[in-house]
């Protein structure tokens, strides 16, 4: 049976989009940004589908090991935000 945690709402747009993707792919409602992907019933096949949706919607390519290391929406959102910061730095360097 699922472990119940206190619900934590998304605090930014990346977290909101990830929550929407997870809920669609896992067939669940009211996923907290602190819920563990695997405790929610996520598996490697779900992770691959979610990675595909993240790439499509957010234009960010994550590796499967990210889900092993960062299995919550809040942790993944932080990784994606850091990717955006690095991309902005590269863009500024080019200009």
UniProtKB/TrEMBL annotation:
Species per Swiss-Prot/TrEMBL record: Chryseobacterium gambrini
Listed name of the protein: Phosphopantetheine-binding protein
Any GO CC annotation of this UniProt entry: cytoplasm
Ranges where the Carrier domain occurs: 9-84
Any one GO molecular-function label of the UniProt entry: phosphopantetheine binding
Keyword Phosphoprotein: yes
InterPro entries with a match to the protein in the record: ACP-like_sf, PP-bd_ACP, Ppantetheine_attach_site
Cofactor(s) required, per the database record: pantetheine 4'-phosphate
One Pfam family named in its UniProt record: PP-binding
One annotated GO biological process: amino acid activation for nonribosomal peptide biosynthetic process
SUPFAM superfamilies: ACP-like
Domain of life the protein comes from: Bacteria
PANTHER family (UniProt xref): FATTY ACID SYNTHASE, NONRIBOSOMAL PEPTIDE SYNTHETASE
